[in-house]
Amino acid sequence: MKVTVLVRPKVGILDPQGEAVEGSLRRLGFPVVGARVGRVVDLELDTADPVEAREQVQRMCAELLANPLIESVEIEIPDAGGSQA
Amino acid sequence: MKVTVLVRPKVGILDPQGEAVEGSLRRLGFPVVGARVGRVVDLELDTADPVEAREQVQRMCAELLANPLIESVEIEIPDAGGSQA
Q1: pLDDT tens digits for A15-69?
Q2: Domains recognised in chain B with CATH numbers
Q3: ∠A40-A79-A57 over CA atoms, to 5°?
Q4: B1 touching A (Cβ < 8 Å)
Q5: Residues A61, B25: Cα–Cα separation, whole Å
Q6: Is the CB of A80 inside 8 Å of chain B's CB atoms?
Q7: Which residues of chain B are within 8 Å of residue A8 when distances are taken between CB atoms?
Q8: Suppose A35 and one of A13, A22, A58, B65 were both cysteines; which one would form an S-S bond, judging by CB atoms 3.0 to 4.6 Å apart?
Q9: Are B57 and A18 in contact (CB under 8 A)?
Q10: ipTM value of the model?
Q11: What is the least distance, in Å, from the CA of B34 to any CA of chain A?
């Protein structure tokens, strides 16, 4: 089963990469008001159960994929909708 | 208007970050078959027209946000659905 995890810097957390992207886009003439950069992690899991998959991915996020102090996580599982964590 | 851009390494393109994540998750005991890591860019644009927004973001991707040789881009615009490019 394929699962997509979006890891973003939380609101209020400094995001130098986003600031660089915003500045560069403005210099190129694009009317950008803000830009934030995070990571997308596409996982192929050895399970077909969406409930089990979500549980596993939540543990992966806690143990490796994200820093809960400064990052928010969104887990997208097919046939199960997305969720904010 | 908020727009989300997902930039991923194309199929077949080496992804050392994804390999590192996959290896680390396996060592932690997770039954992961594959992992690929890309970027998520959240943009706030100075336009309310979804068609204009998509056009602008496609140019941003071509000029700055992605390398079309090795990366694929998915643009998510509210009220307009997603698109692969």
Answers
A1: 999 999 999 999 999 999 999 999 999 999 999 999 999 999 999 999 999 999 9
A2: 2-84 (3.30.1280.10)
A3: 45
A4: no
A5: 10
A6: no
A7: 40, 42
A8: A22
A9: no
A10: 0.90
A11: 5
